[in-house]
Amino acid sequence: MGCSVLATGAANAYVTLMLGSAIGYEDIMSTTNENIIRLGSRGSPLALTQSRMVKAELQSAHPGLQIDLEIIRTTGDRVQDRPLSEIGGKGLFTKEIESALLEGQIDFAVHSAKDMETRLPDGLALSAAMQREDPRDVFISEKASNFADLPTGAVVGTTSLRRRAQILNRFPALEVVSIRGNVDTRLQKMRDGEVDATLLALAGLKRLGRDYDAMTVLDPDYMLPAAAQGAIGIETRAGDDCVINLMAAINHEDTLKVISAERALLEALDGNCRTPVGALAEIEPDGGLRLRALLADPEGAWLHSTERRGVVEDAVMLGKDAGAELRGLAGEAFFDD
User: What span, in angstroms and rounded, lies between the C-alpha atoms of 259 and 227?
Assistant: First the structure.
């Protein structure tokens, strides 16, 4: 059981805490044995690294809190021979974890925020986000330093339709093929000659402590990242106030706001792994919010982009408005395919 289920002896302390008194988390936990919460995570090296980061931050913020890490294998982890767009989309990295959360088998989940569906299952909420790491993509090749240096017919490996569309829109003479797997698997396929180049998220490489001489960081104006790329999302049950309050101590508000703009854009476009969408919202030095967004044909035949600027408080509205514009530019027939 997690801290949302408190022993009878702690009920009064919990009510007092919720009313905003000075009683802290430790005061509640000292009156109950319910001091263990369960974290659900995928078992990939990056997922475990991110989950351990969240666990460490929570235990630093709440001394004495015990967190059990539950590894849950998802459909996206099991099926590695087909693109996500063919087997149901990015929700395949979260579905089993979310089921465990709804059924009370875990108390919260840690995800790469870009893997989370824009419409979460009823009863679940994106309650917090860790500070965003660098959201940019990187180009990795032992044969060239960028796409322009690759010869005609060179093979680039990526499962991302967003990356595929942007590559083919600018470099139609290249061939883009699907490769799945974790960081090491993709890099090994490149070394084995299956592909001439690949792309990865810089945030994941940084968190794994990886650095490659053959790596070129791509400017967002050159390769716009995926919505919420570089952010770690923390998902809870929507009504689990105790767990939600625990997460508030480690929530990075600016990150939650910018990815809310990007996720609102995705929702307006019904964005998933079958829709090539790029989005990046940033808080500028003057405190305003800038959102860059694009929607593209999967084969790169066309690409529509737009930009919004406004106040941070209007992040969701800006995302919806940008999404509506891109939807209009593409035409409804594009979404009916």
Answer: 7
Q: What tens digit of pLDDT does each residue of 178-193 get?
A: 987 888 888 899 999 9
User: Active site includes 115?
Assistant: yes
Average pLDDT along the chain = 87
Give φ, ψ of 154 to 5 degrees.
-60, 150
Tell me which fold the domain 137-217 belongs to.
Answer: D-Maltodextrin-Binding Protein; domain 2 (3.40.190)
CA distances from 209 to 196, 212, 222, 237 (A): 23, 10, 25, 32
Q: Which of 115, 137, 196, 240 is catalytic?
A: 115
90-125: b (≥16 Cβ within 10 Å) or e? bbbbbbbbbebbeeeebbbbbbbbbbbbbebbeebe
CATH architecture, domain 261-336: 2-Layer Sandwich (3.30)
Q: Give 8-132+230-251's CATH code, choosing from 3.30.310.50, 3.40.190.100, 3.40.190.10, 3.40.50.720.
A: 3.40.190.10
Quick check: 292 and 166 in contact, CB under 8 A? no
Reported in sequence order, the residue ranges of 108-227 that DSSP labels E, i.e. its strands, are 108-112, 124-129, 137-140, 155-157, 175-177, 197-201, 215-217
64: left (phi over 0), alpha (psi -120 to 50) or beta: left
- The reported pTM is 0.85
Provide CB contacts within 8 A for 78, sequence distance 6+: none
pLDDT in tens, 196-206: 999 999 999 99
Q: How far is CA 261 from CA 78, 100, 154, 156, 322, in A?
A: 31, 28, 36, 30, 10
How far, in whole angstroms, is CA 105 from its chain's centroid? 22
d(CA 35, CA 28): 9
Could you give the residue range(s) of every CATH 3.40.190.10 domain in the chain?
Answer: 8-132+230-251, 137-217
Residue range 291-320: mean pLDDT, rounded: 97
